[in-house]
């Protein structure tokens, strides 16, 4: 994008944390024509911004976002901008808006939709295996035939040629969960041929976490793929502590020459769909088929049998909070736990889950409190772990009790985990939000402040930066971010949204 008439911006007097992990240092940063022109000695030119007492850093790259589903409706992306996020990496967990050939949707049409909405921030798209599988096999639980697998590979190759940065899987979500390891290996092999990252929401994050990490590393070994383990965590008290073994497995694989890494969000609750509490086969055929099973006493009993062993281990009824649901019988229970609903209905917790699903078209979002703080700390400190939100674009105020991570992730790491608890140094925290995630998707022009880089730059107050969104009151923007530049244009200036919308859909260029 040419922006020749744009005025130079000189950010003076700040502490530069350049994204590489190098120690913070005093340096002036000159932005010219959308690029970093200089980082070092000052030169009075153009518009001067005083950053005394503030930190100047690269714009944050959110490696694990679901913003592709909401950005076109909320292109100002204020929840992201106020955390310093300038690029969202989308299409995660196997879920992406494309390809959907039946509706004529591919990366080009998705990009056109986003471009028409003129977002404030950039989008770096990944393509989801769930979308590939749905396009070819629908929601059926069965093995793909050789022809179907070839068609999935072809659609993936098209997406790669159009410029996606990676392939993702969501192996707990239908229809991705219906794929065997061989299918994933074949697609990861295709992804690798095109130089793409392979990112996975693994098959299990609870009782079978270790087996799931083994599967992911096995896919990387078989395909040669660069592997990203998404939101690494251990769910349920019976599994707390297992992330240590998972990280060791990643270290061993890396020592063997595999390119493996992970990411993490700084919360002890996850956010997902209530259907994720069900045995996988219950989703065969999609939500409509599930609703039919829930209406059939025999099938319903089998689903309950599949759920009961998890209660108290990986499914804590008091920790599963209803976050979002449409109109229906339980519409007034948003913010309440499944345990509370079960008590009022006088049924067991698993039965309460099915009641809520049946009353709301099987479309219910939850926040799930099931992780240990020690585990979050351990993953966050691992050198290969990037900070990533797993959130989406939201505008306050809003309805329901969504997970606060969409508003707070990056500010929370800088505030709570870096300044308050000292778990990470500032340079390391910033590296985990900038050059590390950019390197995972092989995005060369962003993630550091060195001359020639695209001028995605943030200026924040290290004494004040922090998250305000809580589980009880999530609709709160983060604090402490003063200025945010996207390609040299201010989208946040002196703490105010400017209305500028310089974001665009970024595409991987082969090579
Ligand atoms: Zn996920």
Could you please describe the fold and organization of this structure?
It is built from 15 helices and 23 strands. α6 (209-223) runs parallel beside α7. The protein folds into 2 domains: 59-272 and 370-441, Metal-dependent hydrolases (TIM Barrel); 285-367, no CATH class. The protein starts with 8 loop residues before the first strand and ends in a 14-residue tail after the last strand. It has a 7-stranded mixed β-sheet with strand order 3-2-7-20-21-22-23, with no helix packed on it. Strands 11-12-13-14-15-19 form a 6-stranded parallel β-sheet. Strands 5-4-1-6 form a 4-stranded mixed β-sheet, with no helix packed on it. The protein is α/β, with parallel strands linked by helices. The protein has helices spanning 78-81, 107-117, 129-137, 146-162, 181-193, 209-223, 242-255, 287-294, 297-307, 338-345, 349-359, 373-381, 405-420, 426-433, 435-440, and strands at residues 9-12, 15-16, 25-26, 28-32, 35-40, 47-50, 55-58, 60-62, 85-90, 122-125, 127-128, 166-170, 197-201, 226-229, 260-264, 269-273, 320-325, 364-369, 385-387, 457-460, 481-486, 489-493, 496-497.
């Amino acid at each position: 994008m040419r922006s020749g008439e744009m005025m130079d911006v000189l950010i003076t007097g700040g502490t530069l944390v350049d994204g590489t992990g190098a120690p913070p240092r005093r340096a002036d940063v000159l932005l010219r024509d959308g690029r970093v022109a200089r980082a070092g000695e000052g030169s009075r030119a153009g518009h001067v911004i005083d950053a005394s007492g503030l930190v100047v850093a690269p714009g944050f790259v959110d490696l694990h976002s679901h913003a592709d589903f909401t950005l076109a409706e909320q292109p100002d992306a204020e929840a992201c901008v106020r955390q310093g996020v300038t690029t969202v990496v989308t299409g995660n967990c196997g879920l992406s808006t494309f390809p959907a050939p039946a509706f004529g949707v591919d990366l080009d049409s998705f990009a056109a939709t986003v471009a028409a909405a003129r977002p404030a921030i950039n989008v770096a798209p990944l393509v989801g295996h769930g979308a590939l599988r749905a396009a070819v096999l629908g929601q059926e639980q069965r093995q793909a035939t050789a022809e179907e697998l070839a068609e999935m590979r072809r659609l993936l190759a098209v997406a790669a040629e159009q410029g996606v940065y990676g392939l993702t899987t969501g192996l707990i979500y239908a229809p991705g969960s219906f794929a065997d390891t061989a299918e994933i290996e074949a697609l990861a092999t295709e992804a690798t041929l095109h130089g793409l990252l392979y990112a996975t929401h693994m098959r299990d994050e609870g009782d079978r976490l270790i087996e799931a990490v083994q599967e992911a590393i096995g896919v990387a070994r078989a395909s040669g793929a660069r592997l990203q383990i998404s939101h690494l965590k251990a769910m349920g008290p019976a599994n707390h502590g297992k992330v240590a073994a998972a990280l060791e497995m990643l270290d061993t694989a890396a020592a063997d020459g595999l390119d493996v890494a992970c990411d993490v969000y700084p919360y002890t609750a996850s956010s997902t769909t209530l259907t994720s509490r069900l045995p996988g086969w219950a989703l065969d055929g999609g939500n409509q088929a599930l609703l039919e099973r829930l209406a059939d006493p025999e099938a319903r009993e089998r689903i309950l049998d599949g759920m009961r062993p998890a209660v108290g281990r990986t499914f804590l009824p008091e920790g599963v909070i209803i976050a979002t649901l449409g109109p229906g019988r339980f519409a007034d229970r948003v913010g309440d736990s499944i345990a509370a609903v079960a008590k009022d209905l006088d049924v067991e917790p698993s039965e309460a889950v099915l009641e809520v699903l049946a009353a709301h078209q099987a479309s219910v979002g939850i926040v799930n409190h099931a992780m240990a703080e020690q585990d979050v700390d351990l993953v966050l400190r691992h050198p290969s772990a990037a900070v990533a939100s797993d959130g989406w674009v939201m505008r306050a105020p809003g309805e329901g009790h969504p997970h606060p991570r969409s508003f707070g992730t990056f500010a929370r790491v800088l505030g709570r985990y870096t300044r308050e608890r000292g778990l990470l140094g500032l340079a390391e925290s910033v590296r985990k939000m900038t050059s590390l995630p950019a390197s995972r998707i092989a995005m060369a022009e962003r993630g550091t402040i060195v001359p020639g880089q695209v001028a995605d730059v943030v200026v924040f107050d290290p004494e004040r930066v922090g998250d305000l969104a809580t589980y009880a009151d999530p609709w709160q923007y983060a604090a402490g971010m003063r200025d945010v530049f996207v390609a040299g244009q201010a989208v946040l200036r002196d703490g105010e949204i400017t209305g500028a919308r310089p974001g665009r859909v970024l595409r991987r260029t082969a090579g």
